Fold this protein.
Amino acid sequence: MTLARVAAAARSAAALPFVLGVAAIDVDDGRAIGVDDTVVLPVASTAKLLLLAEVARRIDAGELDPAAPVELDPADPVHGTGLLVRLGRTGWTLGDLALLTAAVSDNTATNALLRLVGTESTGRLARRLALGELTVHDRVRDHRGPGDPPVFATGTARALAELAAHTARGTLVTPGASRLLLGWMRANTDHGLAPALAVHDPYTEDFPVPPPGVLLVANKTGTDPGVRADTGVFIGARRVAYAIVAHWDTALGESTERAAVHAIRDVGRTLAEYAATPGAP
């Protein structure tokens, strides 16, 4: 099993009516493949990883305390993914907000974290890590008006995969920040895209070093109209960081969305096979 098989799976979607950006990086030897991986696309909530990376960096540097209480601002709550907008409490710790952002892509928690660290700081971190076009443009909104950025975030599959690779290697500024972000990613509850066809264990405590023959996943997904995305790392006999971003015209209807989801899952299956293969050439 080779990374070329991953690229072949991505190219098989070329005739379908959507863009599929795919990047995969062998974390241990640096080999990489990409298909439309430098095309700038809306990336939805996968860009929350960049926000969480900045939060992890500040916690590791002692600039933020994960136990510090944070009161939600009246402008923070939005609907969509998450739990906080449906719960009665308004006070949480910084660590709670980060975990909720990673685990259930909580939009309200995301807005609270963005209010604390700012989109400018996420941009500085992206430039520091050479992540190219990965950009958080705005807070999450229920409705976007003519004066608002048209989407929450944009980026490339290559930049997202590089961010995941930094996290798995321990080079996300510091090893401590990397471990913190990887742990949050492991808590993600949505395995319905890239890991959907992979036999993996989402619950074992043997993380990030799996027992022989066991495949682990740490990831972050994103969903918006016309966008489905997944980025993270498969950990087995080998470690492979990845990003898969599908973008289509919503006027094409539900059949195109189903085809995009199928394509993401098919690429994810090949990524999992690569990660599970000892000594893949």
In short: The CA atoms of residues 233 and 241 lie 4 Å apart. The first strand starts at residue 19 and ends at 26.
